[in-house]
């Protein structure tokens, strides 16, 4: 997944038969009057709508023209009632940003019992220094064998 900045817009329709939110995204497009120049257009394709009907509804409500500037495209969407956000690609697909591992998740993982780790530490504590040395040599040999295979 790329960390390119993606601009998306969300619309909350009043129709109870439609999804709670519709999404569109801003893409680069060729200007009709100047085929050598790129502009910006809104599309519902791959915007994270979830199903085909929501994508069709979002496409029908989205601004229809190709804009010469990104700011003009955003202004047009906001004028039509869309809430525009710019974020990374991951966030535009539903992740709300921030770290994948938050301090709260790390703390919860530390509090959680890890019986396999405890058993491994107990077994390691019962080994003699000679056995530990032998295990270390075997592990190093296995790593070297794996590197040679690659």
Describe how the helices and strands are arranged.
Elements: E1 5-11, E2 22-30, E3 38-43, H1 52-61, H2 70-79, E4 83-88, H3 89-92, H4 103-111, H5 115-126, H6 129-149
Antiparallel strand pairs: 1-2, 1-4, 2-3
Provide an overview of this structure:
The chain contains 6 helices and 4 strands. It folds into 2 domains: 88 residues, no CATH class; 47 residues. Strand 2 and strand 3 form a beta hairpin. With 150 residues, it is an alpha+beta fold. The radius of gyration is 27 Å and the shape is elongated. It has a 4-stranded antiparallel beta sheet. The chain is 44% helix and 19% strand.
Encode the helix/strand succession as letters.
Answer: EEEHHEHHHH
Indicate the radius of gyration in whole angstroms.
27 Å
Taking all residues together, what is the mean pLDDT? 79
Strand order of the largest sheet: 3-2-1-4
Q: Please tally the helical runs, counting DSSP H or I stretches of 4 or more residues.
A: 6
Number of strands: 4
Overall form: elongated
Whole-number total of structural domains: 2
What's this, in brief?
This protein has 150 residues and is an alpha+beta fold.
Q: Keyphrases for this structure?
A:
4 strands; 150 residues; alpha+beta; four-stranded antiparallel beta sheet
